[in-house]
Amino acid sequence: xxxxxxGEDALFxxxxxxxxxxxxxxxxxxxxxxxxxxxxxxxGPAILQVSSYWxxxxxxxxxxxxxxxxxxxxxAKRSQPRSALxxxxxxxxxxxxxxxxxxxxxxxxxxxxxxVLRAAEARLHDWHFAPNGSEGYAKAEVTAGGIxxxxxxxQTMEAKKFPGLYAIGEAxxxxxxxxxxxxxxxxxxxxxxxxxx
Length: 197
Ligand SMILES: Cc1cc2nc3c(=O)[nH]c(=O)nc-3n(C[C@H](O)[C@H](O)[C@H](O)COP(=O)(O)OP(=O)(O)OC[C@H]3O[C@@H](n4cnc5c(N)ncnc54)[C@H](O)[C@@H]3O)c2cc1C
Hints:
The chain is an alpha+beta fold. It has 2 domains: 1-141, Beta Barrel (Elongation Factor Tu (Ef-tu), domain 3), CATH 2.40.30; 149-196, no CATH class. It is 29% helix and 16% strand. A hairpin with a 3-residue loop joins strand 3 and strand 4. It is elongated and about 75 Å long.
């Protein structure tokens, strides 16, 4: 599900329409795909995937520059001392400007201390958002929860306690990553139940 932002994070909604390749993390889950800023918060494949693991009150963490090697910003200070941070970020311009503003790194890189740039680099690889909610069922692509698989026959999908009752697809507590796994589960479980009837 897309996640909504409020408070300080809501400033990012000015970036509505900007997308970039990120690693989005929540707990131990991590997805490398596109993230999209929307007028209400965060969306795009990386966010939709990670939202299946997100619990209210948790942070979603974003690595904006997953391909940059450690120390790249100090290297940029040495190689491009006259450039501003926003100019050396290989990101969409509006996003680069917003991130540089939020980090408070203005002016030429050559005038920044190594400590400030190390801290900025660390945040660019681990930017925390505290979503205040999600866009809910209306925008969801898959739902978590449902009838426990422990209550069903894995061969026929028949309820162990209620012979003659079958559960398949989204009704069962099976949540796949995006990309076809949920269709596959819906069809495969339907085939198993249909074959048994
Ligand atoms: C926008 C979107 C994008 C998605 N993209 C992907 C994707 O790319 N890959 C992927 O694997 N999965 C994707 N999914 C998830 C996938 O569509 C579902 O997991 C899958 O369709 C579930 O199949 P199902 O048969 O269990 O339920 P559903 O497909 O929801 O079918 C349930 C059917 O029951 C009908 N129904 C409900 N109540 C009643 C009633 N009382 N009487 C009679 N009929 C009723 C509904 O109208 C519906 O036709 C996406 C879902 C959404 C919403």
